[in-house]
Design goal:
single chain; 451 residues; alpha+beta; outer membrane lipoprotein receptor (LolB), chain A; 16-stranded antiparallel sheet; two-stranded antiparallel sheet; 9 helices; DUF1329 domain-containing protein; signal; DUF1329
């Protein structure tokens, strides 16, 4: 794969000491040569990569309004070509290690339909305004695990190291408070699966318009997850208070077990402990592709490249398709996917000596327009590729922000996979209005459990 190496200063910059914001001259490039959140505005005509021209902020006529299904704004688009095992060598330099491995594992059935690139990402103006302030004032310290001087917008739109890129992913705008269905299926080698239905309410405290950094009280977000199916898991409730500085104050988590009718602190909801209902196919820190503390890895910013990334995935998000249509033997129905050429930052995370995690190394591919992680190559302790992760996204064009609509984790060794973040057979993600101080209080979990 051809890399745009970002420079030795990026790859090797130490974050042991505090690193401060960029210069005024650099920040002034936001909304000029750079987009308001830090991507390169220019395209590359030779590659078929268009310039960013403000993104998609106007809903198509087929959209029925807030809380209704996001419909495809490009219904007439057809694939420009389809990558198969037979023509793979023509496109190898635009594919991730994990994508190549999936072609090797499933040469008869795995395909990638590649469409016209549409740089649809957009955010509200207040995010752009806050991002420019953050560029000047955000500081990274504590070995990269502490961010100060930033709020609401992207903290590091002109990143200098791998920590900053991943922080941009963790803090990206996804509305202020939302409810979504995060349905997931652990798929066996035969294609059979068990569906776990998770209803999740999230308040992104960091993203509140007009808030000051000192008002966060070290809280990034509040998260409440209710398992509704299958019956053996129904009624389980997980509450998380996610902190900004997890070294000073680790995330607080509580788990309600309906069988015991007790709410307990859950310190294991972190790192490589298995995620809820995942049958061991993902770790807690793989929710939202990556979340949580970063202290167990060294994070190296490798540079930039172009890859065929899952993007504008309205088709596979459509309520015209049931989960049985999407979930196939070996992999999801790739005919329902949409890939486009996009520029991505590449970050290598390597396990630190003296720490533990089931993943020795992870390579993250982070969309430069949105700071969404779109793909991950995951290696085991033998340095062999173990799992492959992708995030299929679509623009919530009425808000606006980029939302994951299906996330996949392929286990190459077990010949199994997990799909999550689906809501095809349930309600669309929508904004909610909650008193977050009360709603995300542990005492409220007990009230919810009694309903």
């Amino acid at each position: 794969m051809r890399h745009w190496i970002a420079g030795l200063a990026m790859g090797g910059l130490s974050v042991g000491a505090a690193t401060a914001g960029v210069s005024q001259e650099e920040a002034d490039e936001l909304s000029k040569s750079l987009t308001p959140v830090g991507a390169v505005q220019a395209g590359d005509e030779a590659l078929g990569l268009p310039p960013w021209e403000g993104g998609l902020q106007e809903a198509p006529r087929s959209y029925k309004g807030a809380g209704r299904r996001y419909t495809d704004p490009f219904p007439d688009d057809k694939p420009q070509f389809v990558i198969t095992a037979d023509n793979l060598d023509e496109y190898r330099d635009k594919l991730t290690v994990g994508q190549l491995a999936l072609f090797e594992r499933y040469p008869e059935t795995y395909v990638m339909p590649v469409y016209e690139t549409r740089r649809t990402f957009a955010n509200p103006q207040f995010i752009y305004d806050a991002t420019k302030e953050n560029a000047l004032n955000a500081e990274l310290s504590g070995g990269g695990d502490t961010v100060t001087g930033a709020v609401t917008g992207v903290p590091f739109p002109i990143p200098k190291n791998g920590h900053e890129v991943i922080w941009n992913h963790k803090t990206r705008y996804r509305d202020f408070s939302v409810r979504r269905w995060n349905n997931q299926a652990a798929v066996t080698s035969s294609g059979a699966y068990n569906l776990v239905k998770l209803r999740e309410d999230v308040t992104f405290r960091y993203s509140q318009p007009g808030i000051e950094p000192e008002d966060l009280d070290n809280v990034l977000l509040y998260f409440l997850q209710v398992t509704t199916e299958p019956p053996r898991l129904a009624g389980q409730i997980l509450l998380v208070h996610e902190t900004m500085d997890q070294l000073r104050e680790p995330r607080a988590a509580w788990l309600y077990n309906p069988g015991q009718r007790r709410l307990r602190r859950a310190p294991n909801v972190a790192y490589d402990n298995p995620g809820t209902g995942s049958d061991g196919l993902r770790t807690n820190d793989q929710t939202d592709t990556f979340n949580g503390a970063m202290d167990r890895y060294d994070w190296k910013l490798v540079g930039k490249t172009e890859i065929y990334a899952p993007y504008n995935s309205y088709k596979i998000h459509s309520d015209e398709y049931d989960y049985d249509d999407i979930i196939q033997r070996g992999h999801i129905d790739q005919d329902l996917t949409r890939y486009e050429l996009h520029r991505v930052w590449i970050v290598d995370a390597t396990l630190k000596a003296g720490t533990s995690h089931i993943y020795k190394r992870r390579t993250f591919y982070v969309d430069e327009d949105s700071w969404q992680i779109v793909a991950v190559d995951i290696y085991d302790k033998r340095d062999e590729l173990w799992r492959v992760q992708e995030s299929h996204t679509a623009m919530a064009y009425d808000v606006p922000y980029l939302a994951p609509v299906l996330e996949s984790v392929y286990d190459l060794l077990a010949n199994r996979y997990l799909v999550q973040a689906m809501n095809n057979e349930d309600d669309e993600t929508y904004s909610i209005d909650v008193d977050w101080e009360t709603y995300f209080n542990p005492s409220n979990v007990k009230k919810l459990a009694r309903r």
